[in-house]
Amino acid sequence: MSAPPSVPIPTPLPPAATPRPASPLAAFWLDLLIAAATLFGLSLLCGLAWGMWRGIQVGIEAARSGAGAPAAQEVAKLMGTPGALAQLLMALVSTGGAALLLYFWRRRAAAAERTASGQAARRVSTWGWTLLVAACVFAGSSLIAWIGKQLGIEPAPTNLPLMEQAVAHYPLFLVAFAVFLAPAYEELLFRRVLFGRLWAAGRPWLGMVLSSAAFALIHEIPGTSGNGPAEILQLWLVYGGMGAAFAWLYRRTGTLWAAVAAHALNNAIALAALVFFGLQ
């Protein structure tokens, strides 16, 4: 009897590689890089758009006066610099655009999260915590300013001249911008996207520190004002403390609306102080 033909034994396949989970910290830095690049790019585009519009205005004015086209060296003087309204609109487009891009592209809320946020927003305790945090932020900022003054440190926020011009010429738009629009897009970017990523990864305290540092830096960039190192450090402490307080409130209540409301209250108080008392 002949032996049965041998059946070749198949070569075993290597085990499927298990994909390594993405590092939440690497994702945070990528989010921050995208936000910075988007903010810079949109700011540049807004500046170019304003320059083109202003250049058209200068050309029309020159044609109406019959003086002919101005010399190249005179164009910059005639164009001037963006006014308060233009700067506020640029900030709205650049920072707001970065916040929306990061939210919809990288950290869009799921239906379950939106439902939980809505439920938290309907709890009375949520708004009690919101008022408490807003009061603590105001008291803490005032205390830091008072201590700094005793030490001879009196910084001037970079955006103070802009706020003063806007108060004088565009008060209603300034209120809409500072009290409603800016708190919404800043909380969306710094708390929902940046802090929220590390919070969801189980590292809320690291997220609080890093997102608050980014929040402080974007509000006071070294070299953009006449503030010295001590003044910059004081402003960073104020803005960083605000960012940490709003992140804590977001985590404590479970809804971003609480952080937006506390931020809006803080900006409303600061704006009222600027209008009625001229405080920095």
From TrEMBL:
GO molecular function annotations of the record: endopeptidase activity
Report which superkingdom the organism of origin falls in: Bacteria
Q: Where are the transmembrane segments?
A: 28-53, 84-105, 126-147, 167-185, 205-221, 233-250, 257-279
* Single GO BP term: CAAX-box protein maturation
Keyword list, A-Z: Membrane, Transmembrane, Transmembrane helix
Ranges for domain CAAX prenyl protease 2/Lysostaphin resistance protein A-like come to 171-269
- Signal peptide bounds: none
The record's listing under PANTHER family reads:
CAAX AMINO TERMINAL PROTEASE FAMILY PROTEIN (PTHR36435:SF1), SLR1288 PROTEIN (PTHR36435)
- What name does UniProt use for this protein? Membrane protein
**Organism of provenance:** Stenotrophomonas daejeonensis
